[in-house]
Fold each of these.
Amino acid sequence: EVVMAKNQGMFGQQSATSDEHSAMVQAGDAGPRKIHVGSLPDNISEWQLRHEFSRFGTVTDVMVKTGCEPGRQWGFVTFQRSAEAQVAKESTDRILMFPGSEKPCEVVMAKNQGMFGQQSATSDEHSAQYASMNRS
């Protein structure tokens, strides 16, 4: 059974509400859509990761790194919208524990957003800037 803490704020002082999450998801779609999930149990499956994170929005891709040394399992989850990824990160970082975990997952926005980490989170911005400079 996956366990989520009831209080999400610093030192458990603030309760998370569905209204707050809904407002965050509706806020916009600009930004990264992929999160990196670390400190996963060794036997985690892509299905388990997809199932857990689909609570926060539409999951378009899941990748679990295979062949990790024990205790070093990690993966990526990509959402349809950046706001969904942000809510997932904020709702689960150092809170979410899968069965078999020794500690809560560490969830961060992935540094590279493209397939196989080829595209940095800002490469679209650089491409757009370069294109606009060449038009003048």
Amino acid sequence: PNVSLFDDNQDPFPDSLNGRFILAQYSRFERWLKQVRGSRLCILEIGCGESEHSLRLIPKDRGRWACMSDEWGLAPLAASLVRIDPGPSSAPSSNPAGFVHIPLGARDALTMLAEHLSARTAERGVA
């Protein structure tokens, strides 16, 4: 993974972030978004924080979500949002039905979601 932190590419870490890797990831992400256009999406937001550079999603009109920071230039996405973060979070007033907050750490929340989805799949008899 190529995780961007607040002090990347600053002294004493001038070459700590591989920008070419991020551009390649973003290109693949844009291609995927075009492939799923019109599909029902659910975004898992895992521990994004609340800084001005955050990728945390904020509600937009017509059930869409956009990054708090516009550094990526990503257009708002129509989707449901599952926010995984042990900190407090309030449901957005513009799209409360499309929002769920799981106040746990990532490992515990993802384990819980996997178990729930596995049980639902078994109930429906889907292989």
Amino acid sequence: MSSKGFLLNASYEKMAAGSTLGFELTNERSTFTFTLFATSAALFLVLVLAVALWGQFLDRYEHNTARVRRALLGLWFVTTSAELGLWGYGFVQTWVMAVALVANLWGGLDAILRF
């Protein structure tokens, strides 16, 4: 069974029972669409909350660059570890992980060290 839009299910039992040629049209699109929308909305709210919390953190510690740098380094470590975990479990290919590491080392770590 597929979760794409309308599904066409055929069974020999329904054909034998005299159903409309044994085909039944079901709608799973609305369930999939609602789940996708709810997940996207929740992730958006988490992103907005994270940006707001980061803004408050910077407002409080903007003159303490060592503390901000430690926080940035911690976030960099968490995101790089998550990407390594995705690669370790086989969700991404090795070349993707190599590109991600180069981008993290060149961009993220460089920005932290220059802050």
